[in-house]
Specification:
The complex is a heterodimer of chains A (637) and B (367). By secondary structure, chain A is mainly α. Helix content of chain A is 70%, strand content 6%. Chain A is built from 30 helices and 6 strands. Classes of the chains: A mainly alpha (637), B alpha/beta (367).
């Protein structure tokens, strides 16, 4: 890195040439580092292969001629080179080689594992047909001519906005209740509220039908409701709320726990009534985190195709339309064009979120001593808040109860005799379970690290292309898993990257797919931290990297673990990308589980879902041991 | 279901040692495979002797059925050829997309099962390899195989009506036995079927009816039928499940999907339409560039052996294409259902876009 500054300041009696050289040494070092990095990446992206060219037969002698052929994608290499050059434009970044490399690696990673696979699919949207040459807008013309697409687009936006709004509001209120009030059984409520994250979304739909369907335990057997049906847009929103609220709670609990009491104290001292304080001081302080949560839930809601397919009852959204075109109708081109439409609302939401969040600064963590105090609230606020938290927790009990009870009875809906026969088949799923654990632990760690480093780069550093980096990282979240899976297959199943069928590619895919949560949580947490803490460290002579390791990371460790846990859980429960990326030796549990849900009885399916939930809980307990946190602390973020 | 012990005794001729001067001396090995598996009925599987075990791995795409329940087939194949078989779970459409995306470096060897239309699509894109093996030679010319050997049909799937006895009792109706009965207003809001725009199963119904009643006649029928339909699902097998769960009185789906629900112990009745039933042909083909082509060919042959055809019917309920396979007592075979005369799924596949567009316009758009 930098040479000792004193050496440069004191002129030595040596010749001007060596002096000049010496002054140049740091930049020479950077240049060498850059060349080395580029050479390494280039050798991964494109390679020469020796291939047989032609054979010559003269008499009874056969001569084989070989030639060298370039394999790989020169376009990808060009993209990466451009990506690496951009940060070099900033003199400030150039001066700190470690940070330079961090930025370059972040950009390279995003180009390679986000933009490139997505480009592979999206490029198909500009083809007239499979294998057709040239570009064409015919797919988009087809979309415009189909009334269903306009309808599905509107439905997508409406469902996304409703889902995001409701889950953000409810999630924020619950997170507040669980961190800053004196609600009883707080530990257990926290676990129960966040728990639905642990189950795959399609298992939630399944449980919903078991409980609230036309033959649901509650709607049919208990309440005898005949008219109302779970199938339709209400059902989609309800199921999305179940999986989105825990995410909102997870993000906001971290922030509520870290905001300082001082400002609220001041407001109360000045005579502010509790509700006014809550509205004008507490909630504005967590605005960046609330916006983050809203953005993530909106994007995940529009990308969701599994729930609308299972519970939508014919209600069309863009993600299901894309799935049907891609999978049922085998039309990659039209499906790709449809998937591209999903990027538009995601981009709009992203820009809106940034615009609001950047208008004001909401810094509260200064030294971090005075945080997490219980707020005294009047009964009129307390009762609805407590009621909401208990309702959420009760709902989890109901949902999981139905899965576990379902697994232990003869035939859900018809015969509730206890039995263990559904558990027999689970033994055959042990190898898949092991593979799923390898993949999920791997992607949790990889994704967590990338997420926190990128959060630091995005929130604290200024460099050209920062906004683009931020958005590309969020992009993958808005794309249905099916499209991601197909993109990875096309991108990484040819020379020289034979990565399909390996654990590596699944780990990378999951890490990047769920990266936005780690990244956004990290950014929101950073916005809470006063830059003066880092500036003090920098002023005292520490490098940016040292400052990150000693000051920033410890303050962000909660956000980091939140990211790791979230990615771990989501990787354990993902289905749509897994179907394309798992192979003979890397078969994943959810894929098997989904097959059982289709061909097995509801009780067998419940047994598979129950085992997954138990395994995730055990993993979290072990993770708690390793990190020295208790099980509950893990959820406390 | 009862667990029965199947003892498969297999005589396997081991590796043939070739020496420069002597004639090859075959090594005879007796392999006893003992497996405890869950089957619907005891099946005696006789394993033929093969002179050259192939070895290696074989990856089958699109396990439409829980691979754990097909394990005995994989074990028998392994005993015979020494090949480890992996069957990857995915839907037929996912398998198709996957094969296409992997075309530069195929990861799968065989597309096993799924409607022949998938195989037609793959062959058209040049993604499969022709193979005229045991099955192809065995079967008569016609709809069940590709004339050039790109795919061979190995089972029939026929459309049936799934009925929930509980739900039928509540609305005071009987399980319908014909397409005509489905129009009875008693079933209003009680019928589920997939959308032909989203599901191949439902397109099978639409095209089959068009073959039987003529296209206009089929749409006339559909207009009335639409009055009774509660929901058009995205998935083809969902209607069977929904009827089995007692959510709706009638679900229209493939009979084998309905029977799987019966096996699961759910109360669901199965009826076939008396006028004629549409059907699919399930095919098999070898993926171009398969890593283990010898094993792939052996598997394609194996699929047509009576033992396979019988066992596959026992667990997965697909109807064998091979004539003369004795089925389990009480199982319906091809002779028990009335197939629609002259219906060729492959021929109708070409008309899909136009027919679905008409359906969207006349039926789907009014929803």
């Amino acid at each position: 890195m930098n040479l000792d500054p004193k050496a440069r300041e004191s002129p030595s009696p040596r010749s001007p040439l060596t002096e000049r050289l010496k002054a140049r040494l740091p930049s020479l070092g950077v240049a060498l580092l850059q060349l080395g990095l580029l050479a390494f990446i280039a050798s991964r992206v494109v390679q020469f292969q020796v291939v047989e060219d032609y054979r010559e037969v003269v008499g009874n002698l056969e001569t084989v001629h070989f030639r060298r052929e370039l394999v790989g994608d020169p376009l990808l290499l060009a993209l990466i080179v451009v990506g690496m050059v951009i940060p070099l434009l900033s003199v400030r970044i150039r001066r700190e080689p470690v940070m330079l490399v961090a930025i370059q690696l972040a950009i390279t990673g995003l180009i390679l594992f986000v933009l490139w696979p997505l480009t592979q699919v999206f490029a198909q949207g500009f083809r007239a047909a499979q294998g057709a040459a040239g570009l064409s807008l015919i797919q988009f013309e087809k979309l415009l001519a189909t009334p269903m697409v306009a309808k599905a687009s509107i439905n997508t936006i409406v469902i996304g906005v409703i889902s995001a709004f409701l889950s953000t509001v409810i999630g924020t209120l619950v997170a507040y209740t669980l961190t800053l009030t004196d609600i009883p059984w707080k530990r257990w409520l926290r676990i129960l509220v966040v728990l639905p994250l642990v189950s795959p979304p399609f298992a939630v739909s399944h449980a919903f039908i078991l409980l609230f369907g036309r033959r649901g335990l509650i709607t049919y057997d208990l309440l005898r409701i005949q008219e109302w049906t779970i199938y339709g847009s209400d059902g989609i929103v309800l199921v999305q709320l179940v999986s989105d609220i825990p995410l909102v709670v997870l993000i906001l609990m971290a922030v509520f726990a870290s905001i300082s009491r001082d400002m609220e104290d001041a407001a109360e001292d000045l005579g502010g009534r509790p509700f006014r304080v809550l509205r004008t001081i507490t909630f504005p302080l967590v605005t960046p985190a609330i916006l983050t949560a809203a953005l993530l839930t909106f994007i995940s809601s529009i990308a969701d195709f599994g729930n609308p397919m299972l519970i939508g009852g014919g209600f069309q959204v863009l993600a299901t339309q894309a799935y049907i075109q891609l999978i049922e109708l085998f039309d990659l081109q039209l499906g790709a064009a449809l998937a591209m439409l999903l990027v538009i609302p995601a981009l709009a939401a992203f820009i809106l979120q940034h615009w609001i969040a950047n208008r004001r600064s909401y810094v509260t963590v200064t030294g971090g001593a005075h945080t997490g105090h219980i707020r005294v609230l009047p009964m009129s606020i307390k009762i609805p808040l407590f009621g909401l938290a208990f309702a959420m927790a009760g709902f989890t009990v109901l949902l999981y109860g139905s899965i576990f009870v379902g697994a232990m009875v003869n035939q859900w809906g018809f015969d509730y005799t206890p039995t263990t026969k559904n558990l027999v088949g689970l033994v055959t799923a042990i190898p898949q379970l092991r593979n799923s654990l390898i993949v999920s632990v791997g992607s949790g760690i990889v994704g967590g690290i990338i997420g926190i480093v990128m959060a630091w780069l995005v929130a604290r550093q200024r460099f050209p292309g920062r906004g683009a980096l931020d958005f590309s990282a969020t992009l993958m979240y808005a794309i249905p898993g099916t499209v991601v899976g197909i993109g990875y297959l096309i991108a990484f199943n040819a020379a020289p990257y034979f990565w399909t069928g390996t654990f590596f590619i699944i780990i990378i895919a999951y890490a990047y797919r769920r990266l936005p949560v780690g990244l956004r949580t990290g950014v929101a947490a950073q916005k809470q931290i006063d830059p003066s803490l880092e500036e003090a460290s920098l002023d005292l002579g520490a490098s940016r990297i040292r400052t990150f390791a000693r000051i920033t990371f410890p303050l962000l460790s909660r956000a980091f673990f939140a990211g790791v846990i979230y990615i771990f859980i989501r990787s354990m429960t993902d289905l749509s990308a897994a179907v394309f990326l798992n192979a003979g030796r890397t078969q994943l549990y959810t894929v098997r589980m989904f097959r059982v849900m289709i061909t097995g009885s509801p009780s067998e399916a419940a047994a598979f879902a129950g085992l997954l939930i138990v395994i995730i809980m055990i993993s979290l307990a072990i993770l708690g041991r390793v990190t020295g946190k208790s099980f509950v602390d893990l959820f406390r973020v | 279901m009862k667990a029965s012990r199947i003892v498969i005794s297999a005589l396997v001729l081991g590796a043939v040692i070739l020496s420069a001067c002597a004639t090859p001396t075959p090594i005879v090995q007796t392999v006893e495979v003992q497996k405890e598996v869950i089957v619907t009925q005891e099946v005696q599987v006789e394993v033929a002797v093969t002179p050259t075990p192939i070895g290696g791995q074989l990856t089958l795409y699109a396990c439409l059925f829980d691979p754990a329940k097909l394990a005995v087939l994989f074990e028998t194949f392994k005993a015979q050829y020494g090949v480890d078989v992996t069957c990857l779970d995915m839907s037929s459409g996912e398998a198709l997309e996957r094969i296409r995306a992997e075309s530069e470096n195929p990861q799968g060897d065989v597309l096993f099962g799924t409607t022949n239309l998938s195989h037609v699509n793959l062959a058209a894109d040049g993604l499969t390899e022709p193979y005229k093996g045991l099955g192809w030679t065995l079967l008569p010319d016609g709809a069940v195989k590709d004339p050039d050997g790109y795919w061979t049909g190995f089972y029939y799937g026929v459309i049936g009506f799934a009925c929930s006895p509980d739900r039928l009792a509540e609305i005071g109706a009987e399980c319908p036995t014909s397409w005509d009965e489905l129009l009875d207003p008693v079933y209003k809001g009680e019928i589920v079927i997939a959308s032909p725009a989203a599901s191949g199963t439902s397109y099978t119904v639409l095209s089959g009816l068009s073959q039987m009643f003529g296209e206009d006649g089929a749409f006339e029928w559909y207009q009335k039928f639409d009055q009774n339909v509660a929901q058009y699902t995205e998935s083809g097998s969902a209607p069977g499940k929904m009827a089995a769960a007692g959510e709706f009185a009638v679900g229209i789906a493939f009979a084998h999907d309905i029977q799987v629900q019966q096996d699961n112990g759910l109360p669901v009745e199965l009826n076939f339409p008396s006028e004629g039933t549409p059907f699919e042909i399930g095919g098999i083909s070898i993926i171009k560039g398969a890593k283990n082509e010898a094993a792939a060919r052996a598997w394609v042959d194996y699929v047509f052996t009576p033992a396979f055809q019988r066992y596959h019917n026992d667990v997965a309920h697909r109807i064998p294409v091979v004539a003369g396979v004795a089925l389990k007592e009480g199982t319906y075979g091809l002779e028990d259902v009335k197939l629609i005369d002259g219906y060729d799924p492959t021929e109708w596949a070409a008309k899909r876009d136009a027919l679905v567009a008409r359906w969207q316009q006349e039926i789907g758009a009014n929803r």
